[in-house]
Amino acid sequence: MQMTKRLIDAHIHLDMYENEERQAILNDLEKAQVDALIAVSNHLASSRQILKLAQSDNRIKPAIGYHPEQALPNELELNALMELIDSRLRDIVAIGEVGLPYYLRQDNPDLDLQGYIDVLERFVQKAAACDKPVVLHAIYEDADVTCDLMENYGITKAHFHWFKGEDHIVQRLIKNGYVISVTPDVVYENEIQHIVKEMPLKQILVETDGPWPFTGPFEESMTHPDMMHQSIKAIAALKHIDVIDAYEQIYENTCQFYHL
Question: Is residue 76, in this structure, part of any structural domain at all?
Fold first, then answer.
């Protein structure tokens, strides 16, 4: 099928919007030419809410995980998440959001990272056993640690969302066939623009990470999937390609990665 300006939001925290905001986004999707939302989870309650939301709208594609930028889950919650993944395997498209707490460590430099690595490993083991993609929060030096785990467990479908990192890590992601997704800040952030130039187009997705807010032309605007149209235009300009080619390739990338 010929695709033109259709989009898929590869990473959004749909449960974190206010009810009215979330309904407005869902009502706007067709007008915004957005076909699906990869709705990631933050913890057990978040996972359950995402699954519930997806029951009433098949454009919502759930992922179950535990966001690393918070206190570690206790064993009871972690086991419950693993059981939820097993029981809802047909309903989810990925394991995520999972990863390592880069930002939390900036405020807590003595934070013990090993516990977070252990939790991430549990999710990676589960992803390998279930043959599901992994949605990762892993930037800068954390990406190297995360790649080690991916490689150890033979994970080939790893999605590094809103990726930031040095060129040698970018090259490692490229070599392993992993994908990254970029947010609307690609329109104005030099760091993200550089990564887009380095990454092959076939390994790039677009996302909002909503409701996370953005600056630049998006200042004081609620984060909405329609912002990704500007992301696509920016990517096309950075890659020196036709904008329709960028739309079609990124749409195809997302469909293939998530089996949509």
Answer: yes
In whole angstroms, give the CA distance from residue 169 to residue 129. Answer: 26
In a domain, 47, yes or no: yes
For 32-76, the DSSP string reads: TTEEEEEE--SSHHHHHHHHHHHHT-TTEEEEE---SSSPPPPHH
Is 0.85 surpassed by the pTM of this model? yes
The average confidence (pLDDT) of the chain is: 97
Residues 80-93, mean pLDDT to the nearest whole number: 98
The tokens describing 90, both together, are 């047909």
Residue 2 is assigned to a structural domain of this protein: no
Question: Is 206 contained in some domain?
Answer: yes
Residue 36 is part of which domain span? 7-258
Q: How far is it, in rounded angstroms, from Cα 184 to Cα 29?
A: 17
Counting the structural domains of the chain, the total is 1
